[in-house]
Amino acid sequence: MSDKKLIEKRWFKILLCFVAFFGMAFLAVYQRVTGPTHPLRVHETLASRTVSGKLVRSHPGAGGAIIELETPDDSISGQVVWRRYPTEAAWQSLPMHWEDGTLSAELPHQPPAGKLEYSVQLQSGREQLVVPEGPAVIIRYRGDVPPLVLIPHIICMFLALTVVLRSGLGLLLREERIERLIKWVLIFLLPGGLVLGPMVQKYAFGAYWTGWPFGDDWTDNKTAAAFLAWIVAWLVARYWPRFLRPAMAVAFVVMIAVYLIPHSANGSEIDWDEIDSAEAEAAQIGPESSLERGPLTADVVR
């Protein structure tokens, strides 16, 4: 049976959908585990004792971020050394407390999109251990995103990616009427990326859009690039159908490139200089005027 006849079989199209779904799952996991907010695993040895755990790189909601490492030896002491990121401020330290096999300390709360860099310094007798061994861990704070916003956003984005992968398989096998898949990509990508996406951004970091032309947030820019590529494919299908397959192939490549970039890479980040200037101005004006100004807004998020 030729590929052209096989692709028209219903069971084969269902099989292609399953392949696309598993491809989506792989890309989603890859993007997550390679992203800068994925916890950093620790498994070290100090004084013949194991020290293990995860150093968090993202903290949602109120309160400070809890830094924890597990060790059975209560003679191991530690401290968390931290400062705002990116700044050249002096490092500060927090003592870690041992309880039930866990050393822990709480980093101070930061406003949404505020980042800190930190490392953990451990000691047992004369032996010392610093984790991580290389550059300090960077943690970003964010606000809580309501599940009614976050879950539909994630579902729409993953469904859009699944349809894109399905279209790539169709292009490879020379499927007829492949243009029908374009509308489904846009049906999921438009609400997921350009409606719910900015809402997630607003809840998490205080601004609806921090990509071009207002900032350089890669998450927003990736979404815009993917949507634009598929809008172009839709226009080509409508007005220049002879170029349909090349246009869809370009849109496919753009979408895959977007998902190969780690999630939250070069994401929203507070400008600490703006924060310090605003706080200094509020202090000079006085506490009453400071209250009238309200909380710091997304103007300082870039």
Topology, number of strands: 11
Q: Helical percent range?
A: 40-55%
Q: Span from first to last CA? A: 56 Å
Structural class call reads alpha+beta
Give the total of domains: 2
Flag low-confidence runs. 287-298
Shape: elongated
Number of helices: 8
Strand content: 15-25%
Q: Taking all residues together, what is the mean pLDDT?
A: 88
Q: Radius of gyration in whole Å, from Cα? A: 24 Å
SSE string, helix = H, strand = E? HHEEEEEEEEEEEHHHHHH
Biggest sheet descriptor: 6 strands, mixed
Question: What can you tell me about this protein's structure?
Answer:
The protein has 2 domains: 3-34 and 145-260, no CATH class; 40-142, Immunoglobulin-like, CATH 2.60.40. It has 8 helices and 11 strands. It is of the alpha+beta class and 302 residues long. It has helices at 3-7, 10-33, 147-172, 180-205, 218-239, 244-260, 272-285, 287-293; strands spanning 40-46, 49-55, 58-60, 66-70, 77-85, 92-95, 97-99, 102-106, 115-124, 127-131, 137-142. The termini are far apart. Strands 3, 5, 6, 9, 10 and 11 form a 6-stranded mixed beta sheet that branches. β1 and β2 (49-55) form a beta hairpin. Helices cover 47% and strands 21% of the residues. The model is unreliable at 287-298 (pLDDT under 50).
